[in-house]
Design brief:
alpha+beta, two-stranded antiparallel ribbon, three-stranded antiparallel sheet
């Protein structure tokens, strides 16, 4: 109902549902922020407040500017696969997912120095005046030429070469690679908690390290686990 499926997937195929329940999660984030604002307001000025948190509003936030584009330019954004949700041919490009040896990378231009893409891939076509004037208008050609170069390397080598030239490429990691990521291990981001229904479960930990209020990793409550405590006590 919020329109999110209208922008997800390939343009010539049916929409693709995004992973997990993004609208509900975004609604929860907005509710949490509203709660923090309310507590701050109470501590500063006293008194309570009332918050109306709308899942429909949260869905609109997830659309990434398509409502604003429709309002200001009367342009309806359709799904465009892995590319950014723009239609004007002069928009910068690439910003998309492309295959390489054994995986995928997110290829992204340096908007201030688009000529770096040509230098990285030894592809002079990328700096032809007509391409520089309308990069998104040449997106299909861009993809085909990038794929030739990307096919020579795995995703880690692609990113190493690109970032050395200040091109913000990133690897697309698999779930197995994420849980074994050395950076996440060093930060203690992945934690193990005991769950009575399933034994030990590995799950994401603290998204930020706070000295005054350290993160407490614990399992999610069971359905109805605290009903009596909340309704009869709190």
């Amino acid at each position: 109902l919020g329109g999110y499926l209208f922008i997800t997937g390939e343009p010539d195929r049916p929409p693709v549902k995004s992973y997990d329940n993004l609208v509900e999660q975004q609604t929860a984030v907005q509710a949490a922020v509203a709660t923090m604002v309310g507590l701050t307001q109470r501590d500063l000025h006293g008194g309570g407040d009332y918050f109306d948190v709308s899942a429909q509003d949260a869905a609109l936030f997830l659309l990434g500017g398509t409502a604003q584009i429709a309002h200001f330019s009367q342009t309806v954004i359709h799904r465009v696969g892995n590319r950014l949700l723009y239609v004007a041919p002069q928009t910068f490009y690439p910003s998309t997912l492309r295959p390489c040896q054994g995986g995928y990378v997110h290829a992204h231009t340096n908007q201030r120095h688009p000529e770096l893409m040509a230098a990285l891939m030894d592809q002079p076509r990328f700096i032809d005046p007509d391409v520089l004037a309308t990069p998104l208008g040449h997106a299909d050609e861009f993809d085909a030429l990038m794929d030739e170069w990307l096919a020579q390397y795995d995703k880690f080598e692609v990113v190493r070469r690109a970032q050395a030239m200040r091109l913000p490429f990133t690897e697309v990691l698999t779930p197995a690679e994420i849980v074994e990521d050395e950076h996440l291990k060093e930060r203690g981001f992945l934690v193990e908690v005991e769950d009575p229904a399933g034994g030990t479960i590995r799950m994401p930990g603290a998204p930020a390290m706070l000295a005054g209020t350290p993160w407490v990793p614990q399992r999610a409550p069971r359905l109805g686990e605290h009903t009596a405590e909340i309704l009869g006590g709190l």
